[in-house]
Each structure stands twice: as structure tokens, then as C-alpha cells.
TrEMBL record:
Organism: Ceratopteris richardii (Triangle waterfern)
Record's protein name: Nudix hydrolase domain-containing protein
Domain of life according to the entry: Eukaryota
């Protein structure tokens, strides 16, 4: 079941996106206190992606047999990397609950249309439908502005996503909570804390286009051996291409 909660920061003079986030400081502190009362797991406790896979299989009613098999889904190794790098937290519950902070950039053009990622081509050749604005999982210690600039650079590339071409619109920050089953990891309940801003980027193509990322290439040499199987980050499914299109701005 999809649950949403939207908080919009009031308009007003400010120096940066971070200034706007002061308005939600009380909510963030409440979130932090809530986290202290819950139990979470870490990769140190499991020791390997194989152990994480066993833990998930015992706690998810449908198991994880379709992860990385059904088109558009990811491998358990992807989840392992997210957990190891601090991009998510995984709650020690039955069933488990994943929480991820996402920076979402609503890029507008001169006609008011918004850039959305129509779909992704994964490294294994599968297609993953998206139909959403440019989005990036936030890293530990990273603020919204930093995550937005990093996401733009990684997904649009060094030329189209160059920082000097990007202007984030002040007063556009919103924070939205969305809880639903993950499309990447079927059966895994996920809470998405979405931090969105509007932005303008100079000289983007006026029609549909694609960009190349080759996600997870930096992990290609990492392997973890456990028992009779070797779990390698080569098995993690990364994004190869992003396909973009302009859509009319929603009201």
C-alpha cells in the first residue's frame, strides 16, 4: 500500500537550499529520535551478501528468488552495496523495512516542460521503467544540494551535467515521505524520504535523448567469498543508459 506525506517549505528569502531545510529541522530531529528506538542491521553483522540473502529469505514471505531474475529488479548484491555504503538503513523486523533518502531534481525547460527519465537500460540488457524526475540516493553526511549536483553529474554526464550549467531554484525544496514495496527488490517494504528541488540546466537537448553512466563500474573488482559460492559485485546490476524525455509540467 502506498502512503504519502508531503511537507512544503514556505517561500521566503534564503541563501541556499540548506537554509530552506531549517524549516524541517524539527521533523528531522523527531525522525532521529524515532530511529534510536528501532533496531537495524549492518553488513558487519552478516559478513557476506550470501548471509544477507539467507536472512532476507527467512523474513520475506515471497523470498528473494525473483530478485535479479524479473526484468527491472536488482540482485541481493545491489542491496548489500547500498547497505555497506550507508545509502540505506535496513530495519531488523519481520518483514524487514528499508529506508532510503532520495534527492529528486525536477529539471524545467523554457516552455515549462519537465525532464523525466523514461526508462533505464541495465548492464544485463534488461529495461527498467522509471517515468520520474532525475533521482539519486543520498550518501551519509551529504546534504540535499550536494546530492542533487552529484546526481545530475552522474546521470547526465560531465558535459550536460556540468555544475556551471545548473541553477537550483530557491524556494522549491519539498520533503515527501512515500512508503511502498520496492520495485527493485520485490516484497521489500521501503520508506522513501524524497527531498525534491526544481532546477534549470542550460542547453539540454530539446527532444528525447539518452546518457551513459555505467553504474557500479567502481565495484567491478570487489568480491566476497562465502562457503561454496562467491558473491561478486559483478553480479550487482548497474545502470548502463538513461533515457530522457520532456513532459508537460503537472499542476
Amino acid at each position: 500500500m502506498l502512503q504519502k506525506n508531503l511537507l512544503q517549505v514556505p517561500d521566503g528569502p534564503c541563501d541556499s537550499i540548506m537554509d530552506q531545510m531549517i524549516a524541517v529541522e524539527r521533523i528531522e530531529k523527531t525522525d532521529a529520535r524515532d530511529l534510536q528506538t528501532r533496531q537495524f542491521v549492518s553488513t558487519d553483522e552478516f559478513g557476506s551478501p550470501e548471509a544477507l540473502a539467507c536472512w532476507l529469505s527467512n523474513r520475506l514471505p515471497e523470498g528473494i528468488s525473483q530478485w535479479g531474475v524479473t526484468p527491472g529488479t536488482k540482485q541481493v548484491t545491489n542491496l548489500w552495496l547500498e547497505l555497506k555504503e550507508g545509502e540505506i538503513v535496513l530495519e531488523d523486523t519481520y518483514p524487514p523495512r528499508r529506508t532510503v533518502h532520495v534527492a529528486s531534481v525536477k529539471i524545467r525547460n523554457k516552455t515549462g516542460h519537465m525532464l523525466v527519465e523514461a526508462h533505464q537500460e541495465m548492464a544485463d540488457g534488461s529495461i527498467r521503467l522509471r517515468n520520474r524526475p532525475l533521482s539519486e540516493k543520498m550518501r551519509p553526511g551529504e546534504n540535499v544540494e550536494e546530492a542533487c549536483f552529484r546526481g545530475i553529474l552522474e546521470e547526465l554526464g560531465e558535459h550536460l551535467g556540468a555544475r556551471n550549467r545548473v541553477r537550483i531554484l530557491l524556494g522549491s525544496y519539498k520533503r515527501e515521505l512515500e512508503e511502498r514495496e520496492s520495485l527493485s527488490y520485490p516484497g521489500l517494504l521501503t520508506c522513501y524520504v524524497i527531498h525534491s528541488v526544481d532546477a534549470v540546466i542550460e542547453d539540454l537537448p530539446e527532444t528525447g535523448f539518452y546518457t551513459v553512466e555505467n553504474e557500479l563500474m567502481s565495484h567491478s573488482a570487489t568480491t566476497v567469498e562465502s562457503g561454496s559460492e562467491i558473491f561478486s559485485s559483478r553480479a550487482a546490476v548497474g545502470v548502463r543508459k538513461h533515457f530522457w524525455r520532456w513532459v508537460p509540467q503537472s499542476s
